[in-house]
Protein: Export associated protein
Organism: Streptomyces griseoviridis
Amino acid sequence: MTVNMTKGQAISLEKADGGSLTSVRMGLGWQAAPRRGLFGSRTREIDLDASAVLFADKQPVDVVFFQHLVSDDGSVRHTGDNLVGGVGQGDDEAILVDLERVPVHIDQIVFTVNSFTGQSFQEVQNAFCRLVDETNGQELARYTLAGGGAYTAQIMAKVHRSANGWTMTALGSPANGRTFQDLMPTILPVL
């Protein structure tokens, strides 16, 4: 069963049977919004990038993105860069997290999306971030980017350790920047 998340909502990543999730996929999907022009509707390719920043005690210690596809410890893996989005029914980019392999000092993983080509989210439609149980393909949670905006990035969600295991929180914080490095001032307050 999928939970449609709202900004700031947190869900436990514990399975219904009481077990814990062992492997999750954070998927990102989008399409370029059609624009009206002299010759009818047209779209412009938009390159959104998914990134995962790994934190230990509020300090960034590693990042997974299109130029560094696997975390140094191997627990987080990016499936590759999609330069245009909207090419299929599923995720355009995905980041896989083996929760059992995440080192114990890593307490938060923050997922971001940014427009590498600099278009604002006003030019993006049908954008979503979703969490999937990678062991069985079941979608657990979905956060939809609604309404666009004059910003070029979003701090989408984070998974963080809690007393009961891992928890996901939908953040939905708008930001501006073309890379995850540009987003660090916006990420730090949500840790």
Observations:
- Residues 3-34+42-190 form a domain with the Lipoxygenase-1 fold (CATH 2.60.60.30).
